[in-house]
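Side project, low priority. Logging it here so it doesn't get lost.
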Amino acid sequence: MRVINEIKPLRDILLQNKIDNKTIGLVPTMGALHAGHIKLIQESIEECDVTVCSIYVNPTQFNNQVDLDKYPNTFEEDIQMLSDIGCDLAFNPSHNAMYPSGNQLNFDFGHLDKVMEGEFRKGHFSGVGIIISKFFNIVQPDFAYFGQKDIQQFAVINKMVEELHMNTSLRCVPIVREENGLAMSSRNMRLSEKGKNDALVLYESLNLAKELLIKGVSISDVKNKIKHKFASSIVELEYFEVVNSDTFISMDKVTKNSPVAICIAGHIENVRLIDNILLNE
């Protein structure tokens, strides 16, 4: 595996692969890799001739400087994991390479970045859109792989691809969970063992909500039950929503054929965690 830090050498390598009619897969990450990332890379390796994994902590998608400063850095371990799994190229650019003139752009995704993650992380999806569009422009991937844990982010990127007619097909890979059910996240590294156990209330709440909704309990009653569950939890609930998984418009009732996502976010030990499940899967 090759580790590349500059844009031009990466483009040169990928151009030759394109000339040779090889398909390119991209897995954008911020490092601190775990089994969830590895699953994305495995999907790319299976589908594509060449797999590129980017490792770059993008400052424009953080609305909290403390969160940015504390984001885990495990670069050497990450590179070893990528090499072991058979990734072809690791792209680890500098801030100067990605933002040579600073950031003067702003993306607006309408309703998609005004609710849930967009509401509580102002400017987050603009930063996501900017960095992903840069990576897509640099790598020109045939396929790009993202995790379902960031389901709203996937919808935002999908919207960007559609609106800008980007020639990249997106893949949304199901959530990989720890043995106890906690959704894998780089931020889990900042939790104590007790914190990880306490954070299970997020996944437990999603499963409870799914069970109740399938039984026909109203969304409003489900939300009340979830709020009551968190009243006795050490985890601070930020939001709990039942939304159309395509539009992210909150639903008043579950209809038979609507794509439904149950989404949750909470704080524990000064760490913010998100999770979701799909109602019909």
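Brief comment: The longest strand covers residues 236-244.
Revisit when time allows.
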